[in-house]
Amino acid sequence: xxxxxxxxxxxxxxxxxxxxxxxLNDIADSVGxxxxxxxxxxxxxxxxGYIEQDELTPRYRITYKFQCLYSPDVSLFQIKKELKxxxxxxxxxxxxxxxxxxxxxxxxxxxxxCEPDRSVRISLELxxxxxxxxxxxxKVFLSYSDHLQASLIKFQDDSFHEALRQDVxxxxxxxxxxxxxxxxxxxxxxxxxxxxxxxVIAVVCVSGPSYRFGEKEISFTLTKLExxxxxxxxxxxxxx
Length: 240
Description:
two-stranded antiparallel sheet; six-stranded antiparallel β-sheet; 8 strands; alpha+beta
């Protein structure tokens, strides 16, 4: 067992199980370490964003960032079952194709799709893995993952880094991503994140031919999607 890892978790467990507003001295006494050693651990955890100091006192507490480490307490089966009606409803009101996508590491996959009864419609393949940078869906997943962003810019130039940064800022501010004929000519898409306990667990996307799914239709779709997702007790389209 690596002792430094063990010590870090002992400190975190003490904070979590003792009111989440604890003093350095109390932590040191509990874990049996010198105050300077505990202080070094705390500083590292602060730099990583997992703990912070109280604004009024020198006490430490765990931040919400730890929620990002939890596995979702809903299964993929539940997600598909509970969001399928959203896809059916949004396709009915927009008369365009809708998708439910999940993240798979640095890729994503379409899990569900709902197609309109129209002669011209968009149909992407279920079960296929797609890269994050090529679609509106991927850009949503990418925007809420610092790890994916870091891995992408590692081997890219500064212009790519800046373009990605601007995309992320815009998507997180607006709460959605739009693809105007970027992935495929004559295809427009809009994608919104689905949050559960502040974590993106899926993305819902609506796509259609550019000649009939333009700015006005995309705006209408976004309004309807937000309404539909807001009715679900478990999920949200906003990181609240």
